[in-house]
Design brief:
Largest sheet: 8 strands, parallel
Number of domains: 1
Structural class: alpha/beta
CATH topology: TIM Barrel
Mean pLDDT: 97
Strand order of the largest sheet: 1-2-3-4-5-6-7-8
Order of helices and strands: HEHHHHEHHEHEHEHEHEHHEHHH
CATH superfamily: Metal-dependent hydrolases
Distance between the termini: 23 Å
Radius of gyration: 18 Å
CATH class: Alpha Beta
Shape: globular
Low-confidence stretches: none
Strand content: 5-15%
Number of strands: 8
Bound molecules: hypoxanthine, zinc ion
Number of helices: 16
C-alpha cells in the first residue's frame, strides 16, 4: 500500500541490529544439518513457538542457545548476507550491524571465524546489493570487564575494519560504569562507542553511558523519558537514540505498539531512529518496524522523513563516504 511504498522508498539506515538475532529458524535447521548439530527442537514451528518472552532475559537465554549452530566462516557469511538482502529489499542504504564475539569465543570458536565470515558477508552485500555496511563489536555486560578487555585485544588485527564497540546483554544490575576502562581503550584506538541503555535499566544508566563511556549513540534509551532533565539534555546535545519498537513490544517494554513512545520522542525533539534489534526473534525486519509503528502511533509523512534523516545523520559514515542528505 501507499504507506509501505513511501517508507520503502525513503533512503534509511539501520543502526541497531544484532546479526545473531537475524538467525531465522529455517537457517538454524540448515546450519544444524550442515554442521551435524542436534537441536533441542523437532521443527521450525516448535522453535517459533518458543519465541514468547516477558522480559529481556527470556529472550537472551534462547538467543545465545540459537547462536550455537554458527560454526564456520561460511555460516557467518550466509547469516549476514541473508540479513542484508532483507534490509536492501526494505529500502535500507546503510546497515551497521552488531555482533557478540564472546558468545562464540566462549564456546570455543577462534575469534577470527565470526569476524572474517561477517566481513565477507558485508563485502558481498556491498557488491551484490550496493549496500553500505559497517560492523560494531559488542561486549557482553553480564561478563566481567576483564573479559571485554581480552576481547578488544583479540580484535586488534581487525580494528581498521570495525566501526566501533557496543555494550549489550542483560542490562539491569550491569551498569555502564563497569566498562569504563574498555570503552576508554576503544576510544583511544579510534573506535566509535555505543551502549544499550534505558531498555530495562533506569535513566541513570543512560547518563552513565554518556558521561562515563562517552558514547556516540544510545541504543534504545526509552527509559530516559522518565527523567525530564535527562530528556532535555539528550535533545540539547542531539544524541541519537536507536529505538526498536517491535523489540520493545515482544520484550514487554510497552504493552502495545499503540502506546509506544516513538511519536512522543519526535515531538520532544529527540533524534530517534527505527530499528529491528533481533528481527528473527521479534517478528519483523526494518520495514515491518517502520510500517507497524507508523500505523499504530499515527506518524505523518514529516515524522517519517525526520526518522529517515535521523538514521542517515546518526550513521557512522567514514569521511570518504560522507553522509547522504535527505
Ligand atoms: N538488549 C540487550 N542485549 C541484546 C539485545 C537487546 O535488545 N539483543 C541482543 N542482545
Ligand atoms: Zn539490541
Amino acid at each position: 500500500d501507499a504507506l509501505t511504498d513511501f517508507i520503502r522508498r525513503l533512503p534509511k539506515a539501520e543502526l541497531h541490529m544484532h546479526v545473531e538475532g537475524s538467525l531465522e529458524p529455517e537457517m538454524m535447521f540448515d546450519l544444524a544439518r550442515r554442521n551435524r548439530i542436534a537441536l533441542p527442537f523437532p521443527n521450525v514451528e516448535a522453535v517459533r513457538a518458543a519465541y514468547s518472552f516477558s522480559r529481556l532475559q527470556d529472550f537472551l537465554d534462547i538467543y545465545y542457545q540459537g547462536a550455537a549452530v554458527l560454526r564456520t566462516e561460511e555460516d557467518f557469511h550466509d547469516l549476514a548476507l541473508a540479513y542484508f538482502r532483507r534490509a536492501a529489499a526494505d529500502g535500507a542504504v546503510r546497515c551497521e550491524i552488531f555482533f557478540d564475539p564472546q558468545t562464540h569465543t566462549d564456546r570455543g570458536l577462534p575469534f577470527g571465524v565470526a569476524i572474517e565470515g561477517l566481513l565477507s558477508g558485508m563485502a558481498a552485500a556491498e557488491t551484490e546489493l550496493g549496500l553500505s555496511t559497517g560492523l560494531i563489536l559488542c561486549f557482553l555486560r553480564h561478563l566481567p570487564e576483564d573479559a571485554a578487555l581480552d576481547t578488544l585485544k583479540a580484535a586488534e588485527p581487525w580494528l581498521d575494519r570495525l566501526l566501533g564497540v557496543g555494550l549489550d546483554s542483560s542490562e539491569a544490575g550491569f551498569p555502564p560504569s563497569g566498562f569504563q576502562k574498555v570503552f576508554k581503550a576503544a576510544g583511544e584506538r579510534g573506535l566509535k562507542r555505543v551502549a544499550h541503555a534505558g531498555e530495562e535499566g533506569p535513566p541513570a544508566y543512560v547518563a552513565e553511558a554518556l558521561d562515563l563511556l562517552k558514547v556516540d549513540r544510545i541504543d534504545h534509551g526509552n527509559r530516559a523519558l522518565e527523567d525530564d532533565d535527562l530528556t532535555a539534555r539528550l535533545v540539547r546535545e542531539g544524541q541519537v537514540l536507536t529505538v526498536c519498537p517491535l523489540s520493545n513490544l515482544k520484550l514487554c517494554g510497552v504493552p502495545s505498539l499503540e502506546v509506544h513512545p516513538l511519536k512522543r520522542m519526535l515531538q520532544l525533539g529527540l533524534k530517534a531512529t527505527v530499528n529491528s534489534d533481533d528481527p528473527a526473534y521479534f517478528g519483523g525486519y526494518l520495514l515491518d518496524n517502520w510500517v507497524q509503528t507508523a500505523r499504530a502511533v499515527g506518524l505523518e509523512r514529516e515524522h517519517l522523513v525526520t526518522l529517515a534523516r535521523n538514521s542517515l545523520e546518526g550513521a557512522f559514515w567514514t569521511e570518504a563516504e560522507g553522509a547522504p542528505h535527505l
